[in-house]
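Forwarding the complex inputs:
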Amino acid sequence: MEDSAQRGPDAAAGRGRAALIEDGVEFDGRDAALLRAVDAAGSVAGAASELGRSRARALSRIDALEEAYGTLVERRRGGEGGGGSRLTASGRGILGRYDRLQAVLAATATVPETVLDGAVTAIDGELAVVDTAVGEVSGLHGGTGSDDGGDESGGGSDLAVGDAVQVRIGADAVTVNDAANVVDPDATSARNRLAGRVSGIDPGETVSTVRIAVEATDGSAPGDAAAEVAALITAESIERLGLAPGDPVSIRWKATATRLVPHAE
Amino acid sequence: MEDSAQRGPDAAAGRGRAALIEDGVEFDGRDAALLRAVDAAGSVAGAASELGRSRARALSRIDALEEAYGTLVERRRGGEGGGGSRLTASGRGILGRYDRLQAVLAATATVPETVLDGAVTAIDGELAVVDTAVGEVSGLHGGTGSDDGGDESGGGSDLAVGDAVQVRIGADAVTVNDAANVVDPDATSARNRLAGRVSGIDPGETVSTVRIAVEATDGSAPGDAAAEVAALITAESIERLGLAPGDPVSIRWKATATRLVPHAE
DNA sequence: CACCGTTGTATCTATGACGATACAACGGAG
DNA sequence: CTCCGTTGTATCGTCATAGATACAACGGTG
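Prediction (whole assembly, four chains):
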């Protein structure tokens, strides 16, 4: 599984868990639930009892979070109803950030991805060109802001010419074009372009995964596909393009939507 | 901050931390470092001493991981060199999965995103249409596989017509087209399309963030921009398209690259 | 004034993860 | 055979986190 240049569309990246992290303090799903419960109940005490957890701990947890993220909850004691607590604007803001991070994570678990093995042939700033079985592909690297418990993940943010990397292309980033009606490449910002044939369609309710077989650039395998690239397409688009297995198509995706993962071996 | 329909391009979603999770057992950066050290040292004992952690704990941690993820390390005691350990294929596989998840997380922290507030007007399978300040936008919802400590994040996977949602568009998913040279919409699978003007360019080394002002669809604000959408573009593409502030452009992104986040209020 | 429910704060205990340490079992090398 | 470094396994102490409990402080309401 670790040998071939082609891995093809993978069903899913698996379940994951995400947390914001700032100043060494993690904001995870438990904290999000707490803030949401405070928002709903109007008090930390009510939220804690609603969640079945200790009120004192909930308060100290909020303290710890606020030390890293700023004021999240406006607390008031005494007065009408004995007091109460309300989320601040930044409290709602962090909930939004968490939700969006969660949405991205859920998407990566749901959306198929294509992984190509290759070697870096050129680096220019945040962009790198990688030689793969289907030709040269350009993508983003770096930005590994991954300071958790462990060491750097796969070699840090540095990448050098000749390094072995995996090119990750999310199926939701791949655009399928009619092969006959080729778009003027100068009119768009999508950079990577390949020709291929539809090798299969995995239907969904309204969204389908189209597998596209792409031939190798070097003439090593004449009629054989060097890789299979997955593309997420709405059923409507499939119908509009009249896609069916065997059809020649042109696929295209942005260099900025391509991620390079250092791949030691 | 929680009122307007427009939030504009946000600098970053903030740092985050991700972990695979299966069967209640998390696989985080610490575990990845351990497996990588085992691969490098050829033994758990060597890996533990290399990482400065307890050998007994490392072994029991591997046991715990294998109970959830299957055999990751092939251990052999006695024999040449006293024994040793090697990663199995699935051990390398989980490392790859973790690295790719990490890459996605790093990308979401690095890449700007555009967030639009809106309300759901139609739902059809995995797709939903949302009415926003810039018109109707379609995107994916659901797939909230987020079982961590807390409750469901923003309301679970269910979405109904009329619900308030945030539409999240990653800047790396937005394609910029020359307004003059409009592509035949029937020839591509990109669905959402808007016209706008370049309002600013934040230059990077080889990749820049282009901000595009989009006017409202309802004639409420004639000349004013209803939202600003961010697009990640390579410097080369900017030059090729001759982009400069004020230029009219056509932007486009796939419905499948758009995520809908339930947004209680 | 007393009453009430909340926010603060302190202390004790339980739990789980980890390091440290020790010892047995294994199997090839010498 | 002995020697060696590794894998197994068990035990103890430490540390961080969370629950449980108790009590003081607050400030409207009555």
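Residues 1-13, 144-156 of chain A have pLDDT under 50 and may be disordered.
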